[in-house]
Write a structure and sequence with these properties.
This protein has ten helices and eleven strands. It is α/β, with parallel strands linked by helices and 288 residues long. It binds iron/sulfur cluster (2 copies).
Length: 288
Amino acid sequence: MKVTVASGKGGTGKTTVSASLISVWPGPAVAVDLDVEEPNLHLFLHPEISGQRNAFMEIPKADESLCSRCGQCSDLCQFKAISLMGEVLMLFPEMCHGCGGCISICPEGALSADVRLLGDVSWGHSEKGDFIMGRLRIGEAMSPPLMRAVKARLEDRITASPADVIIDAPPGVSCPAVNAVMDSDMILLVTEPTPFGVYDMKLAHQAFAPMKKPMGVVVNRAGMGNSEIYDYCKAENLEILAEIPYDRRIAEDYANGCIIADTSEPMRQLFTGLAEKIRQKAGREVSR
Ligand code: SF4
Ligand code: SF4
C-alpha cells in the first residue's frame, strides 16, 4: 500500500504527519521524501544514508556545422527551450523538459543527447525503517524527472522486499504534487482550520479528486480558526481521519525535530488510530 501525505500549501504539518505515521505503522514501511525542492523528512527520521547517486535528464546539444536552419526543432518545442532566431540556433537547457522530440525530428542529425544534472537520490535506513529521498540541485527548477528517479529507486526497493510506503509529497497542486500522488493507493490531505488552510485544501481536493483515489483529511492545529474546514469536508463527503490539537507543546516538539507520535501516549494513540483508519479506507473507497 502506498499512502501519500499531501497538502495544498506548505507549513500545514505534512512532514510531521508523515514522520509520525512511519513511527507507528504496523509492519514494514518505507519512508519516501518526494518533496525534492525542500526535503526535510530526514531531519525527523535521522536515517543512516547508505547510498547515493546523481540523477540526470537528457537534453539536446547542437552541432551547428550540420544545422541547415530548417527551424523544425524550434517549431516543435513547446517550451521554447530550442529556438531558431534568424540564422542563430539557441538552446536554453534550463527550460528543456527532456522529451527528446527535437533530437528525433532534426533532419540533419545536428542534435544529439547531452545530460543535465537534476540533483541526487539517496537512501538508507533509520530505526523506523528504510528511507529514500531526492534533493533537487540548487538552481534547478525541474523536479518531476528527479521524482521519477526517486520512484524508480522505490520500486527496486519494494520489489526486493515488499513493504508499505509512506510518501511525503511536495506542497501545492502543481505538477510535482500531482506527480507525487498519482500512483498512490490513498491520499491524506493535511490542513489547518485557517482561511489559507481551507482555501488551499479545497484546491488540493479539487486537483486530486479526478484521480478517484481514496482521500482523507488530517486537521492540524485543531481548535484554532473557525468551522469552515469541517463544513467543507462534510459537504464534500471527505472523512476527517484525525485532528491534531492546537497546542504549544506540540509546536515546540516539532521545532525541536521530534516525531510527534513519540512524544506522548495520547499522540501515539492518535497516530496509531490514524494509521488504522488509513489501512481500512485504502482500497475500499473512492473519493468524490
Ligand atoms: S528535448 Fe523536448 S523540451 Fe527539450 S528542447 Fe527538445 S523539444 Fe524542447
Ligand atoms: S531541426 Fe536540426 S537542422 Fe533544423 S534548425 Fe533544428 S538543429 Fe538545425
